[in-house]
Design brief:
The structure is a homodimer. The first copy, chain A, contains 10 helices and 2 strands. Chain A is mainly alpha-helical. The first copy, chain A, has a two-stranded antiparallel sheet. The radius of gyration of chain A is 22 Å and the shape is flat. The C terminus of chain A is likely disordered.
Chain lengths: ~240, ~240
Amino acid sequence: MSSANRVAATRGSGRPRQAVLDRELILRTALRLLDERGEQGAGIRDIARELGVRPSALYNHVAGQDDIIAGLRELVSDRIDVDGFGSLPWDAAVRLWARSYRRAFAAHPPTIALLAVRPLVPGSRTGRMYDAVCAGFLAAGWPEERVLTVVVALESFILGSALDQVAPDDMLDPGDGDDLQHFRAAYAARARGLAERRASDAAFETGLDALLAGLGAELAGAGPVGGAALSPDGGSAVGEA
Amino acid sequence: MSSANRVAATRGSGRPRQAVLDRELILRTALRLLDERGEQGAGIRDIARELGVRPSALYNHVAGQDDIIAGLRELVSDRIDVDGFGSLPWDAAVRLWARSYRRAFAAHPPTIALLAVRPLVPGSRTGRMYDAVCAGFLAAGWPEERVLTVVVALESFILGSALDQVAPDDMLDPGDGDDLQHFRAAYAARARGLAERRASDAAFETGLDALLAGLGAELAGAGPVGGAALSPDGGSAVGEA
């Protein structure tokens, strides 16, 4: 193996070791820098500096920034459990998928907003995750044209819940004062009700159950939710100020 | 007015004008820089440079970075419509609130992940938004200890949907190929079904309807969703790999 494929491993304690420069190492380094520094500290040059190589050396293994982002999505979405689809009832499979999905993204908070708005890269492993999910929805009886709309609705909830999981537990603390009486009462009552449970876990399970109850009713034949009475711009008959 | 309170207005075309340096101008500048450059380009020094003043001049009007973030949250959350609480049925009020909430954050995408994880600052106008929402939930009959758990579940969905609204319409395009047959079929069917409607709007309305259906069942007396059968760590009886 040429020396160009060996880099100083800078992570961990002890004496420097030599690691093999490959796609996996580049992606794991990119994910670590993203977690530590945010998107603006995890570019090609940052990764190369961290690995002690020239930026050009990275291009033997990755095609560029978009390819790195596709690889980051693979690293995160590899942790999403789709095994329930095809083996468990639809709602149980969705729970397993949703919980693992939230956990995978909450473990790497900067990936949430980054990956939520970047297109999938065709050919990436992430497409296989979606294929397994779509297969499960279709097998459960979801109409073909509804599957991805429902999946995206669930994903929006999951990713928002991953953000909330990262937030501090006292994020909504109204502080002291004599105003905001309803907010203060609700905040204190939630704390009493939660006991040792995390507020973000309770909110996630509540929303997941509510979504599955509503979606389950559509699947059971109550007709589409969210589709019928809406104008093309997504508005409804309810007037908006 | 002293010259320290006048700054060169750098926005817009035409000859430079003098604007009054006040909290409002500082916050609007911070929001614009955040939108243009992200969090790392919207610090105190960046705002001061943009306004052509020394950083110390800003401290006559804002207490520091946390105060600026609280102010950004006020600017965004001022656009959230709580007028339905107290005048419309609970579910219609939630729809009005949720749609305006999503729109307010989607108009400033970097605020979504930033504000989702920062604690409220006591005394900010945002507390009044939460107070109005809590009052509406309590008046609708929600048990005091359930209100904020349900509100946060809805917020997670709304903020995730705001991220999805910012994403390109073809974000999930599986590309060409012979594999991923379920994913490709679902993607093509969704496009046919959507016609001119935006995929993100359809997903948002679908999820909102499903959440309200599930939560409405709890409110109508079906008992709490997401609360009962869970272990303290938020897990459930469904085994996770």
